[in-house]
Amino acid sequence: MTVKDWFEQRKKMQIARRDQDPQIDDTIGKLWVKCYNCNSQLLRKEVEENLDVCPKCNYHFRINARTRINQLFDEGTFEEMFSNITTADPLKFSDTEAYTKRISQAKAKTNMNEAVISGVGEIDGNQVAAAIMDFEFMGGSMGSVVGEKVTLIMEEALKRKIPMLAVTASGGARMQESILSLMQMAKTSCAVARLNEAGLLYITVLTEPTFGGVTASFATLGDIIIAEQDARIGFAGRRVIEQTIRQSLPADFQTANYLMKYGQIDMISSRAELKSTISKIINLHKK
Amino acid sequence: MAILEFEKPLFEIQQKIEELKKISESSGMDVSDKIDLFEQQALEYKKELYAKLTPAQRIQIARHADRPTFLDYVKLMTTDFIELHGDREGTDDRAIIGGIAKLGNESVVIIGTQKGKTTKENLVYNFGMPQPQGYRKALRLFYHANKFNMPIVTLIDTPGAYPGMKAEETAQGTAIAENLREMAKLNVPIIAVITGEGCSGGALGLAVADRVYMLEHSYYTVISPEGCASILWRDASKADVAAEALKITSEDLLKLEIIDGIVKEPLGGAHCDYELIANNLKKTITDAINELKNYAPDKLRNDRYNKFRRMGVFCQ
Ligand SMILES: [Zn+2]
Predict the structure, then answer these.
(1) Nearest C-alpha of chain A: how many angstroms from B271?
(2) Closest Cβ–Cβ partner in B204, B232, B258 for A185
(3) Does the interface predicted TM-score (ipTM) exceed 0.85?
(4) Which three-class secondary structure state does DSSP give residue A112?
């Protein structure tokens, strides 16, 4: 191999890496995983014990809703609500695959029945109503069930007069429910209006990734908006914007740091500090 | 006037009729019976054509270059329109225009997305794709209406909120979200009408209303059929199939109980008769205002909440 070849190959690899979602490759055996951000081979156990953050480069990998709940709520205090609400197929939608089939695949893959878990639990002893989204379930997309469960738990917060927490992870509205999905943006935002009018604290945590209809509704309506480190957050997707404006975007476009620079979020939190940050905020708003 | 692809057979019949007329004139032959018959047949054909339009064909009508724009409706429906510019933070987005006007006897705040009819105009109005600053201007005008107890009318015709770099930097998502939330809090009647394209959050950002109507051939959807096709089918050319699957027509949305009514368009679409469509639209809006202005602010807000609260279909 000539030096030139070596450079060419390296360049190609770098491009490939950039296209790679900087998450984790857990297909390489039971004990080991690979970080796509720094390329390190890591012990699975070591990563899990580190809150699913790369011990080498500190990259925050996506986590599912149940892991998130375990990390944020006092042990054994979280009680899931409204899990009886499940997906219908009101439009009998089918693209290259039937919607019903996509739903059953998602259920099997995630052991969840939809892209959000709603419930009430305690954070350092304070009761909090929460909606925790799961990106693994159809990209965390918001259809009727997500909208309904988010709204119901906000109404529960109103009933109990307790703070509301939303942890978002979503590609946006769920296309398979079309206009009904769009209306969930209105529904959840109207519920936030009621939280506002009741003077209840509403905290949102935007995690990797939060886009589209979720960004343009309850995610960005928090009284306090926290972005988790390494989250990418936006309205339109990067590719759509690049195609529209016909120029390439900065590498850090739509990252938590980028949003911070443009004044869109209150703070960035590492996963390790997230619980104590939320806890402090709740305590500071206690009357 | 631009001829749409599916209208071409109709256009050819009309051309034949014109030819016949010319021949009859130059030769002095009386063929008026024949012309009448052909014209009758053309009309029947046109009615038939428009009675069974596919979603994709209706999208073509909704996007027609000559479709009446927000400012056309303002001119035809209202008097004493005074435009109120700017978001008070450095920008006057031209894709959203708003102001105060008389609609019948009522002073209203009227706001809409504006499209152009020529490329030059469209560059000014950004093809009806608002920036966050447009939504913020709308919000400022919503508050104005609330303060002075004026009903709000919004007319929506947009391919979506603009997906641009600056739009992201100035929080497109937040701007739309805040409108959704704040519209829920307003004490005055809100009437929203989808007049052409009602795409995604960019349309919804002006449509959390007490009454939502659609023009007959407009469409309202979570994502453009092209966008949907390229994501779900991985093939943008499947847009027609996506348009069918997404259930985007006014009849579909009435059936799904998302909208409150349909404003009938003249045969051939709104662009064929501006006066007629403006009259129909004005009547729908005025009737709604006359009903809603009887309600106390609490009732308005509660009903509005419940209206959107009901939306969604799931198993329980
Ligand atoms: Zn790493």
Answers:
(1) 26
(2) B204
(3) yes
(4) coil
